[in-house]
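pasting input
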Amino acid sequence: GQNIDQPTEMTATEGAIVQINCTYQTSGFNGLFWYQQHAGEAPTFLSYNVLDGLEEKGRFSSFLSRSKGYSYLLLKELQMKDSASYLCAADNQGGKLIFGQGTELSVKP
Amino acid sequence: DAGVTQSPTHLIKTRGQQVTLRCSPKSGHDTVSWYQQALGQGPQFIFQYYEEEERQRGNFPDRFSGHQFPNYSSELNVNALLLGDSALYLCASSPSGTGFGYGYTFGSGTRLTVV
C-alpha cells in the first residue's frame, strides 16, 4: 500500500527550532517534497529531496533517508508567520504526489 | 509572469448537480494535475493531463472527468454531486521536461460546497 504519516499538530515558541517528521511507504519513489499551506491558500513549495542527506535553504532544512522511508523538515528561528500546515508528499511516479494529512504548526509568542 | 489561475474561487452547488472547474497553467507548463483537499486533510490526486490525454488517475470514481485543451488549460468536471465532494480543488501545473513533480506550481484552488 501507499502511506504517508506525519503528526497532526505541533506547537512551538517564537525563535525556537522545530522538527516535523514524516514517514512514507510508496510503490514507487521519485523524491520527497515539503509544502507550506496557510489556511485557504495554495500549497507553496519548500523543499525537494531525492538523494539521502540534508538540504538547507535559509531557515528551512529537509532531510531524507530512503532506506528508512523517513524525512524531516527543520524550521529554525521560528516566526509567527510560520504558523501554517506543513505537507509531506512523496512523488510516487511521474509527478503523482502522495500527500500526508499535514502537520498544523502553531507558533506562540 | 502569471502563475496557475483557477476559476471560480468559490462555488455552491446542490446534490445531484454537475460542476465544471477551470485551470490555466503557468506559462511554459504543459502538464496539469488535479487534487481534492478535504478540510483538515492533505490533497488527494485525482488525475493528470498531458498532451490532451489523461496520463494518470487516482482512486476517484468515473463521476470525475477532465479535459485538456491545445493551449494546455484544463477542466475538471464532476457529475451527480455528493455532499462528500465538498472540498478545495487544487490544480497544479508543471513542465514535462524537468520531472513532473519537481516543477509543480499550485493554483489557489476552487472551494466547492455541495448542499
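fyi Chain A touches chain B through 25 residues (CB under 8 Å).
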